[in-house]
From TrEMBL:
The keyword Signal does not apply. The chain crosses the membrane at residues 6-37, 83-103. GO terms for cellular component: plasma membrane. It comes from the Bacteria. Residues 4-54, 72-119 form the Inner membrane component domain. This is Membrane protein. Keywords: Membrane, Transmembrane, Transmembrane helix.
Length: 122
């Protein structure tokens, strides 16, 4: 199911979403200050390419001071907008029975979009 789900996901928007995250992350990496945020955006892009069959794992770095500060900055600058987009897509997809698995994947990406530092999608 995860292979078929990922293929359908990629065909109907996952590829565009992932590439948007990756290109935005590369643009953020052009400045020294933006590198940590660019890396997290690229991580989100890779996660958005194939979300089926993967789980969010909190690493030991998530409770560190730097991760908490960067998560707060990310939440204020980028995270809440990205999370709202994923929530909106999940609501739209949840209207139909066929869209429910895809809505679940968007909901899986919301915590990663809000607090990406110290979290991985494995």
């Amino acid at each position: 199911m995860s292979f078929l789900g990922n293929v359908i996901w990629l065909l109907f928007g996952g590829f565009v979403t992932g590439m948007g995250y990756i290109l935005g992350g590369l643009a953020m990496c052009l400045t020294i200050i933006g590198i940590p945020f660019g890396v997290q955006s690229i991580k989100l892009g890779v996660a958005a390419l194939t979300p089926f069959g993967r789980e969010i794992v909190v690493t030991e770095r998530a409770s560190g001071f730097v991760a908490v500060v960067f998560d707060a900055l990310w939440l204020i600058l980028f995270g809440w907008e990205i999370a709202l987009v994923h929530l909106g897509h999940a609501l739209i997809l949840a209207i139909t029975i066929v869209g429910l698995p895809f809505a679940k994947q968007h909901l899986k990406l919301v915590p990663l979009a809000l607090f990406p530092f110290g979290r991985e999608l494995n």
